[in-house]
Amino acid sequence: MQVMRRNPFGVDICCRKGSRSPLQELYNPTQLELSNTAVLHQMRRDQVTDTCRANSAMSRKRRVLTPNDLKHLVVDEDHELIYCYVPKVACTNWKRLMMVLTGRGKYSDPMEIPANEAHVSANLKTLNQYSIPEINHRLKSYMKFLFVREPFERLVSAYRNKFTQKYNTSFHKRYGTKIIKRQRKNATQEALRKGDDVKFEEFVAYLIDPHTQREEPFNEHWQTVYSLCHPCHIHYDLVGKYETLEEDSNYVLQLAGVGSYLKFPTYAKSTRTTDEMTTEFFQNISSEHQTQLYEVYKLDFLMFNYSVPSYLKLE
Fold this sequence. Notes:
Its main location: Golgi. It is found in: Golgi apparatus membrane. Keywords: Carbohydrate metabolism, Glycoprotein, Golgi apparatus, Membrane, Signal-anchor, Transferase, Transmembrane, Transmembrane helix. One of its GO terms (biological process) is carbohydrate biosynthetic process. It comes from Bos mutus. About 50% of the residues lie in helices and about 5% in strands. By secondary structure, it is mostly helical. The protein folds into two domains: about 20-150 and about 225-270, no CATH class; about 150-220 and about 275-300, no CATH class. It has a four-stranded mixed beta sheet with strand order 1-2-3-4, sandwiched between helices. A hairpin with a 4-residue loop joins strand 1 and strand 2 (about 80-85). Helix 11 packs across helix 16 (about 285-305). It starts with 9 loop residues before the first helix and ends in a 12-residue tail after the last helix. The model is unreliable at about 1-15 (pLDDT under 50).
């Protein structure tokens, strides 16, 4: 692989110690203690590759990607990183980190960046904003990574965040009203107008309804990782997991050469969606609906090595 030109700003302002890129550090680690981790990440990469191959009919429906497919890939030119963000998988904190990494000294502490600021699209550059040759060059020589989570836990997290919080009126109006209109018999006028009391069962029925898929792509908060990040078309060098969020995140920062002064923000979120909560939410879903929902998210389960949840009553 080629070595990138040195950054014109010099290493002192932003960048890496030495001239090794994160890709080189990943595939030819200079430090031995990184090699165990490297083996784990090789296994995760192989799992994605094997799943793509085994399900090629399903996974390669699209033969080529267009720039429009690359809106979720955040680019850091100073450290040669590309991060595909997946909502409900620590993406706010990772966007904060990317703002620190690309800010050239504007920020030092990721947690000083307000959450809503991290989601302002102008604050980060995404891959779709480049020309085709520039896109291909970056896909080839930058280290590409993403973070994944157990698909149904992520789904419950999205549901709780978007449909059970009173402040999310835009989601209630945009999706809630539609879901209630389609899935609830004898809905009250108020429910149809506000859309703010969607039940989890109704949300699931909406997701598996063929009409939904035909009408428009899923919202990014419940879209499959497979459709957001295109792991069968883009070779991710590193798959981080929500279950090992801190270790995996700090490994990325270490490979980028910033691990000595930048760490993933640690926080214990008391409202976090857990496996127990997810089990609870799925109690009321019929086995027929569970089976159909599993089919929708099946590639995410397989690709990222999540086993079929024990609480599922699959048909």
